[in-house]
Amino acid sequence: MRFRPYRISEANLSEKLLISLFGMLVIFFVIYGITLYLKNRNEELIQRILSNPVESKGIVVSFTSYKGKGATINYSVNGQRFEIKPSVTNEFFNNTSIGDSVALVYSKKKPEEAVLKYKLTVAKD
Length: 125
Fold this sequence. Notes:
- Helices cover 44% and strands 28% of the residues.
- The protein contains three helices and five strands.
- A five-stranded antiparallel β-sheet has the order 3-2-1-4-5.
- It is elongated and about 85 Å long.
- 9% of the residues are buried.
């Protein structure tokens, strides 16, 4: 019995290339859709906050640098304590320390919805 190497015909090769291309397109559109969803969700949050905004101060209680830079900010509204964990810029991360007071804006209707004030000026630019 003689060994014959497996040969890929041109038909099999072009079929595999089409399947691979289709798979890559599906992955691209899934990632693109997730990106659009997250961006839209963030814009909706900002619009809800700006529909009835209240400026306040929060205290930085921690930082994280796992998969991007973030901070934990505590703030109080009418004696009730809230916490946000926004992603932050490198400048904020490098120039702010734990215990620092930072400006934030929250929704008067839903005080648990808040955003750092500097992010509002960045979003408008």
